[in-house]
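sry for the spam today, last one i promise. struct tokens for design, 267 residues
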């Protein structure tokens, strides 16, 4: 069950719970859990002192110093299972504002008798989300590519792709960036002049395999390395497609991209 409601909260109870714990830095979690925001959705999990089957309720407090029903952004409840509670992928009521800290509060019966618990905080910068997708030629899983953003004034951010190739920077400061997408064994791709002045969704980029020696092109150097390792079943550098060995599949990819080089485009 997920819904927005306004609550007639017992603010004294909440204030007492919050007063016990000083607010911490970005993404802090007290105990065993996780509090995250990917630029679009939130997830909170917790697993300390719970009783399976019991109901727990999550609240996000926007301003711990001024608790009222307007300041509670979200409420949800879940039963503990497998020793934890999970509130996955819910949408925040409001877009986070610069420097705003959300405090995640969990209510319910805990084995130590204390409740509610302040389980973590999320502090948001002045950035906006940047997301996109990268596919890796010849692979079923597109996880592990590195997407880096850097600006002329020194700001830099990095993210990794997930299995489906997607990546997200939760909070990128506005500016003009160079995006570089790299993956061992693959030709990199660079995008210059990427303007971030609001949420950005970049086009899907396909990285081509074969740059085993990572010099920005597919040449005799890569072919030599692959041939030297051909047949090896111990995850050699020339295992372009990540199946653990160097085979005809990797050779085919390399030869298909022979003489190609890393690419650059203007945003
Ligand atoms: Ca392979």
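last one done:
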């Amino acid at each position: 069950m997920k819904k927005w409601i306004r609550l007639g909260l017992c603010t004294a109870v909440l204030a007492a719970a919050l007063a016990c714990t000083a607010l911490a830095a970005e993404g802090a979690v007290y105990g065993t859990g996780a509090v995250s925001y990917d630029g679009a959705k939130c997830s909170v999990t917790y697993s300390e002192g719970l009783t399976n089957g019991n109901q727990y309720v999550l609240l996000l407090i926007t301003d711990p110093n001024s608790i009222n029903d307007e300041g509670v952004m979200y409420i949800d409840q879940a039963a503990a299972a497998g020793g934890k509670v999970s509130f996955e992928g819910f949408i925040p009521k409001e877009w986070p504002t610069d420097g705003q800290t959300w405090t995640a509060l969990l209510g319910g019966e805990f084995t130590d008798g204390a409740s509610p618990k302040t389980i973590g905080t999320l502090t948001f910068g002045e950035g906006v989300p940047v997301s996109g997708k990268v596919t890796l030629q010849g692979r079923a899983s597109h996880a592990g590519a590195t997407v880096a953003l850097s600006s002329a004034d020194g700001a830099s951010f990095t993210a990794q792709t997930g299995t489906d190739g997607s990546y997200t920077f939760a909070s990128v400061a506005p500016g003009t960036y160079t995006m570089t997408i790299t993956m061992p064994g693959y030709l990199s791709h660079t995008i210059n002049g990427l303007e971030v002045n609001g949420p950005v969704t970049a086009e899907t980029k396909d990285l081509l395999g074969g740059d085993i020696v990572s010099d920005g092109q597919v040449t005799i150097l890569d072919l030599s390395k692959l041939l030297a390792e051909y047949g090896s079943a111990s995850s050699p550098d020339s295992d372009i497609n990540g199946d653990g060995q160097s085979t005809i599949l990797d050779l085919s990819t390399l030869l298909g991209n022979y003489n190609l080089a890393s690419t650059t485009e203007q945003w």
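The longest helix spans residues 220-229. ok im logging off now
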